[in-house]
Design goal:
There is one protein chain. The protein is an all-alpha fold. The protein folds into two domains: 51 residues; 55 residues, no CATH class. It contains three helices and no strands. The longest helix has 50 residues. It is rod-shaped. The N and C termini lie far apart (103 Å). About 17% of the residues have low confidence.
Length: 109
């Protein structure tokens, strides 16, 4: 009888310790999730700065390519900018493949 009581107490103590470990794991997992969310938000902000808005970096780099910069690589389609979105910081729209920057300047004069 006494041994059974000791076993019951040991089981209860181990169960309490197991539960506390479980709670610690859940808390750590929640912290990881929160940090992953922060990381995703930071990535989305950085990507927005790269791809959106007048004079964004993608548009500006593509404008340089269209002006004849020697390059060997192309942007992945996942970040490519539509022609209508490719805004040149100096003009209302960057030149298309068939136009030169000088042609665009002449059109604005």
């Amino acid at each position: 009888q006494e041994e059974q009581n000791r076993n019951s107490l040991a089981i209860a103590k181990q169960a309490g310790n197991l539960y506390d470990k479980f709670i610690g794991f859940v808390e750590a997992l929640e912290e990881v999730g929160g940090r992953l969310n922060q990381t995703v938000e930071a990535w989305q902000l950085a990507r927005k700065r790269l791809t959106s808005g007048k004079g964004n970096l993608i548009s500006r780099a593509e404008a340089l390519r269209k002006l004849g910069v020697q390059n060997t690589k192309r942007l992945p389609s996942s970040v490519a900018v539509e022609e209508d979105e490719a805004v040149c910081p100096e003009h209302s729209k960057c030149p298309t493949e068939s136009e030169t920057h000088e042609t665009m300047i002449q059109k604005t004069l």
